[in-house]
Amino acid sequence: GNCDNPGWLFKFELADTVYEDIPGPDIWLGDDVTEDGPDWIFLKKDGSKIEGACGPMKLDELIGEFRAWVN
Questions:
Q1: How many helices and strands in the chain, by DSSP H and E?
Q2: 28 vs 39: CA distance, rounded Å
Q3: According to the model, what pLDDT value does residue 37 have?
């Protein structure tokens, strides 16, 4: 999905998967983690969900962080 500000947002439901009970990431990266600019990444597991968001040019990096966690 797309955020109100320029960037990307995704949410995955992890219920009934092997990842539901695994401790998840809590990542804030980038020079501008206030979400006001293009250089930020957020990835956090909250209960049985994982949410990620990033600036408009950081989608590949965000997906890479997610993939690193599931591997």
A1: 1, 4
A2: 11
A3: 64
